[in-house]
Amino acid sequence: MTTNTPSNSAPRQQAQDDEIDLLALLATLWDQKLLIAAITSVFMVIGVSYALLASPVYRANAIIQVEEKSPGLPGMSDVTEMFGGESAAITEIELLKSRKVIGTAVDNLDLDILVDPHYFPVIGRAIARRFAGEENELNTPVLGFGSYAWGGERIKITRFDVPAALFNKEHTLITDNDGSFTLLSPDGDALLSGEIGKLASAEGYELYIPSLHARPGTQFSVTRLRRLSAIIGLQETVAASERGKDSGILALAIEDTNPDRAEEILNVIANTYLRQNVERQSAEAAKSLDFLREQLPNIKKDLELAEQKFNAYQVKVGSVNISAEAEALLDQVVEIESGIAELQLQQAELDRKYTRDHPAYQAWREQMAEQVARKAEFNTRIKGLPETQQELLGLKRDLEVGTEIYTQMLNNIQELDIVRAGTVGNVRIIDDAAVNIEEPVKPKKALIAVIATLLGGFLGVALVLLRAALNRGIENPDDLEAIGLPVYASIPLSDEQRKLDFGGRHSARKLRKIRNQHPTVLLAQRNPTDITIEALRSLRTSLHFAMLEASNNIMMISGPSPNVGKSFVSGNLAAVIAQAGQRVLLIDMDLRKGYMHKMFEMGPENGVSDVLSKRVQLKDAIKPTKIGELFILPRGAIPPNPSELLMSKGLTELLEAVSGEYDLVIVDTPPIMAVTDAAIIGRQCGVTMLVARFGLNPVKELEVTKHRFEQNGITVKGVVLNAVERRASGYGYGYGYGYGYYQYEYKSDKADS
């Protein structure tokens, strides 16, 4: 059997898929405004709660100035470059954050030992933080939870040694009476007990607590970090930057939940860096001073030997006067010899600092070569003097050169000693660490609240749009028309029906969310003016003309899946047709889960299954109702083989018998996608109508349902779109559908009677 599908349906569907209707999107958001508001409110409450309960983080700041280094050592002015130039800011920052500097702070402040009281979950830390008692006062436990810290607790641990395998493992310390304590392992086993102010040790553990102020039974978590781990963690926490390019001003900062600890850590780091800078600056002077002091005894010994030789010569030859020419040569030779001796002292420093190819070393070589050449020239002139004058001049020269070198070295030693003692370095602390406790840097309460609210709104909108995108349920009758299924009526969702079923205990909005509750009251009888009943009256008119072309007066109402409202439509449609003066029989042929009898306030016994199994006569099974000429044939007892029972000749005999007795016979059947009963019954019915639920059944599911009926030789006359909700979005949505295999479980309610 062919299906008359409009030829332009595919292009139209594709065009709808490609369009983005902003008004439809806004309408969808408006329909779900309460959900969006609820999600936004939840996130706002979470954000505000976090902002109020989170521990504030404080920032300590300090300012350090790095100045240009002082010039070289006295007496070494020709090679001042050996003492280095100005350090770049990045170099000083790396030195400041080095393990040597940070490690000193870790050692001095015991930062490799983490101690934290156990607070009551979520709110305990906030309560303890807001406690403002006296110095030694403890906050009263809330609801008797004495094992938690509630405010005022203090503990200091200066030594906590653990076995190597238990580094970074959390231990538990419990305070006892009379200043004692007990340490528990990570597994909860008791390790050792001790007293405040005394070293406790056992099984590789050593623990020293100089001070502890807490209520007996209070628990603390204690963790020993590896020293390197603590240093690396602190390095990541300390921030250092230069204020202005090449300004030499370094800004240090550290953040911590404890403002006093943050200030103390930053001061230790700054002072350690300052002290090491001074030591680094004075190191050159100290090394030069040590070298001069090592050379001084040898020079003094040479001076004494020269003096002895000069005195011995004078005693030997008597008084000898040096000529004016020899005196002039002597002064010049002494000056040259002193210069050479000074250059020889500098050579030791150069050998320690530079290679032979360094420019400083090359300059030294040129100076030494010049002095040696001058010395050779004067030695030649001295050889022209008389022998006595030459010998006396040589002894006198050795004595005066030795005296000059010794005196100059003593002066250099004194100057270097003064320089070493007075070195202040090229770093100074401008501002000591300070913390503004009035304005913590974190959390930004207002910002967190705003971000949480915006995030909640965004997620709410995203959820609504995602649900709309994933919702394949029919919301536009045009989609059914496109697959060749005329829509005979759109039945509004009846809040009144839900109220009647639930006795008015729920609000209309809550009732809309309950989809799987079967109606137990006939709405056409209880409230015949309801808008839903008016829509069914419109359907009655449409079906009147449809039945004129039918082969008989039997109309089957089915659906693709459970919970679409086909029984609701069948029962109320039969009622409104009977109210119009026609004689109507309503047959509940859902032999598995039929509940039509509940709507008419009767039991299911002596019904269709009993007639088909020949246990009850048809005339005895048909029951009158309170509505005019409306009669009902309930389902009867639930049989073990519903499909086989419906395939028997008894079904044909039943339908033929009632067809001539009534103006219209309405047969309510199970969903075709769940069981085959509707396909069996539909062959003997003049008209087949489907009921689809608004927003529940996809178009593709209705298309598969239509094909399944057609495969069994049954033509679907049209569709009733049930439970249509009033939405701002209205019709006009475009959907693209993929589909798989639809399979529903539909077991018998054997316990129902």
Structural notes for this entry:
Mean pLDDT is 81; it is low at 1-18, 70-87, 504-515 and 731-743. The chain has 25 helices and 22 strands. By secondary structure, the chain is an alpha/beta fold. A hairpin with a 2-residue loop joins strand 8 and strand 9 (205-208). Helix 3 (33-53) runs antiparallel to helix 12 (445-470), helix 5 (99-109) crosses helix 8 and helix 9 runs antiparallel to helix 10 (359-382). Strands 15-22-21-16-20-17-19-18 form an 8-stranded mixed beta sheet, with helices on both faces. The chain crosses the membrane at residues 34-53, 446-470. It is a multi-pass membrane protein.
Low-confidence stretches: 1-18, 70-87, 504-515, 731-743
What is the number of helical segments per DSSP (H or I, 4+ residues)? 25
pLDDT averaged residue by residue:
81
Terminal CA distance reads 41 Å
* Beta-strand segment tally: 22
Indicate the overall shape.
elongated
How much of the sequence lies in strands comes to 15-25%
Class per helix and strand makeup: alpha/beta
How much is the radius of gyration in Å? 52 Å
The largest sheet, given as strand count, sense and whether it forms a barrel, is:
8 strands, mixed
Q: Residue share in helices?
A: 40-55%
Strand order of the largest sheet: 15-22-21-16-20-17-19-18
Domain AAA: 564-676
Coiled coil: 275-346
Organism: Zhongshania borealis
Family: Belongs to the etk/wzc family.
